[in-house]
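Weekly sync, protein design subgroup
Attendees: M.S., D.O., the rotation student, P.L. (late)

Item 1: inverse folding check
M.S. brought a backbone from last month's batch and wanted to see whether the design step gives back something sensible before we order anything. D.O. pointed out we never logged the input encoding, so this time it goes straight into the notes. Structure tokens as presented (168 positions):
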């Protein structure tokens, strides 16, 4: 989960006897139809624990049944990976292969734009720059919670070097 995102889940008891139903629940959530429905906000970065306890009555005795689990919180992405696949500059008039992505965001939720940019596959683009000395590629991503992140990178544009003949 990203920091601040809602952590939701269910904890259920596997049981053979339909009469064995939890009478109470302690933990981050509430008891609904014999299930613990958990809902909380992801806090600090790192591995976090979720634990609680069901209680149920068997032969007149209260039986506690503890559970524990973990989830991982990662920082929200704030930077995209924008790279020219084969060079540090882009060349005017040629398709320059590029890769673009945001960590933790699927390709279907990532959009890139620049003059002369076209998508060629999953996370793959071709940039055919026109006039000028620089081109800026902007990338935006939409996270699962609906929030957006953006990043951009500027590349120098060079003319194609003239051909050089050689005798080998």
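Designed sequence read out in the meeting:
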């Amino acid at each position: 989960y990203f920091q601040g995102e809602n952590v939701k889940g269910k904890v259920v008891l596997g049981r053979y006897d339909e009469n064995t139903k939890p009478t109470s629940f302690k933990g981050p959530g509430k008891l609904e139809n014999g299930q613990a429905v958990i809902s909380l906000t992801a806090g600090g970065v790192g591995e976090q624990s979720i634990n609680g306890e069901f209680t149920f009555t068997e032969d007149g005795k209260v039986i506690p049944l503890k559970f524990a689990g973990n989830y991982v919180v990662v920082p929200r992405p704030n930077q995209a990976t924008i790279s020219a696949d084969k060079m540090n500059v882009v060349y005017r008039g040629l398709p320059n292969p590029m890769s673009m992505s945001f960590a933790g965001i699927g390709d279907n939720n990532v959009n890139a734009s620049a003059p002369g940019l076209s998508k060629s596959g999953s996370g793959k683009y071709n940039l055919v720059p026109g006039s000028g000395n620089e081109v800026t590629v902007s990338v935006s991503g939409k996270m699962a919670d609906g929030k957006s992140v953006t990043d951009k990178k500027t590349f120098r544009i060079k003319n194609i070097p003239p051909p050089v003949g050689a005798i080998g």
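Discussion: The CA atoms of residues 103 and 165 lie 44 Å apart. The chain has a mean pLDDT of 82.
Action: P.L. to compare against the previous round before Friday.
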